[in-house]
Amino acid sequence: MRELAVRLFLFACLCFVLCSCGKSNRHYDFKGRVVSKVPETRTLVVDHENIPGFMAAMTMPYPVAANVDLSGVEAGDRIAARVVVNKDGDYELTKVAVTDSSHRQKEAKETRHLFPGEEIPDVELVNQDGKKLRLSDFRGKTVLLTFIYTRCPMPTFCPRLSSLFAVVEKELAKDPKEYARTQLVSVSIDPKFDTPPVLRKYGLAYLGEDEKNFEHWSFTVPTPENLKKLAQAFALIYEEEDNQIVHSMSTVLIGPDGRLIKEWNVSDWSAAEAVAAMRQVENAKK
């Protein structure tokens, strides 16, 4: 657990903004532990030390530059890395060196997540109306699923994901047949606070206060134990600290057969990209 999590988290984001306003790129060297690697998106989730001037000590995903060879980096590795921040505030790792790989096998067993083609955990959820459901209830549909929590204060995290889902929702609704073959699911990582009434109020804000759209976009919450199962399956990192939750991001595309197709572990994907991926799945069925 990180000390003074929320204050440090907000401070880190402030530092990030301040350091990104210059005219040239800035770089910061740091050390950390690789929690997971997502080859498809060239992302490393790193539990890192404090990075003075950029980011407080925390666990978060980092996109990796295209010219960096990730073949020798695995979960559990201790690394020395350099993050480069450009003038627009975008960041990526440009130098990654493994300093200790002795924890690799143990870590890999503990944190192994699903790969495309594998079946997702069929856990029980409770939706915004208090109704119990399972992910298997959506079999036959192409499902876009993400993790949020309603109190999330960071505009580039949960609010951004929910806003992207709102755009996807509107786009899919343009075609009734397409709408009927797809499903959106938001899963809360805050079972203590996000009760069905809270989720219902939160969801209506993104659905234009039209409750009939809950049939297509479900806002759900699992038990803490089921949340752990989903988090492990989808490489989601979350820690509750000082009445807030520090977390990574995970959005996944699930096929009509209940198997993982694609995942995004950052928030820089677009609604158009997600819709295109969903349509590709639907077209493959024809």
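The above is record 1. Record 2 follows with the same two-line structure.
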Amino acid sequence: MLPSFGRLARAQRYDNCSSVVTARDPQIKYNAQFLDFARFYGFSIELCNPNSGNEKGRVERKIRDIRVFLETETFKDLNDLKP
């Protein structure tokens, strides 16, 4: 189980992946299961605009930060991550 910080951001930014968006012409059509997930946890979905590299970097940076954390920290199992 991952550590819980007790809070969730009100809005999450996503790239235009198929697990979030099923179509974008002319209106955005969200994946129904993901939309239910977002509603259940109470956050809104913010999408990156197509062909806008500066926006996608904000999404990719989170992945990089997690990867750097996992490479630099030493732990045996998930229990070591608990506060």
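Helices lie at 32-41, 53-72.
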